[in-house]
Amino acid sequence: MRPILNIINAMIKECLHNKVFFGIVSFIILLFIFSSYISFLSLDTPARFIINAGMAGISIVSLLIIILFGLYSIYEEKNRNELHVILNRVPRSSYLLGKFIGISIVQSIFGLIVSTGIFILAWYFGKAIRFEIFFALGFSILEFSLLIGVGILFYSLNLTYTLNSLLLIAIYIAGHSTKEAIISFVGLGRYGSNIHLYIVKAISIILPDFDFFNFKLELLHHQYIPPAKIIISMVYWLFYLIALLIISTAIIKHKDI
Questions:
Q1: I need a labelling partner for 149 at 20 to 30 A (CA). Which of 55, 173, 187, 252 fits?
Q2: pTM of the predicted protein model
């Protein structure tokens, strides 16, 4: 347990001293300014405009944290030949788990900062108190924790940093598009290709389905979310994440570092 905590602590300290930290903080400030500006362009729904911009901002900030800080710091340890020294002192499973938790905590902190800012702006400019923003943040954290797990899996497979980053972006986009693709092929009926439909269905099973965590429409329109839907989303997240970490650990244990 102590090795994992040490790695988590090191990740958080590294974030505070990383140049990416200041770049992302600057982006968040610009996001707040932009959200405030577009609130004046709306006629009677400034809170909705602010929340829309804020939800998009959380996704962008999370992707930046995962790619420019999380993955980059892991690959830099390898490039500086520090990884061999670390793995001589720490079990490989503890190393991966510590990195995963560390990146997840940093991403969650920045997500909370953005959500709090958007909550305040929606209250100040839109005269709306929307605690649902933090509900959406919770599922956004689950969503991006899966993406972190995928990134760690690719790292254990010895993919390069650039390829890993590009694949993560592609998987994030695909994870929000597979259901629409399946519906489109089903809607084509006999005019569509069954082969393409089966390929898309197979991809939707293998890749993480991020639509399980997308409650933005319900948030904006005050729609009721069935508890069963929330439970299914959390169970899906738990089993998929455990599978990712187990596979990553099994692979890296048999790798020569």
A1: 55
A2: 0.86
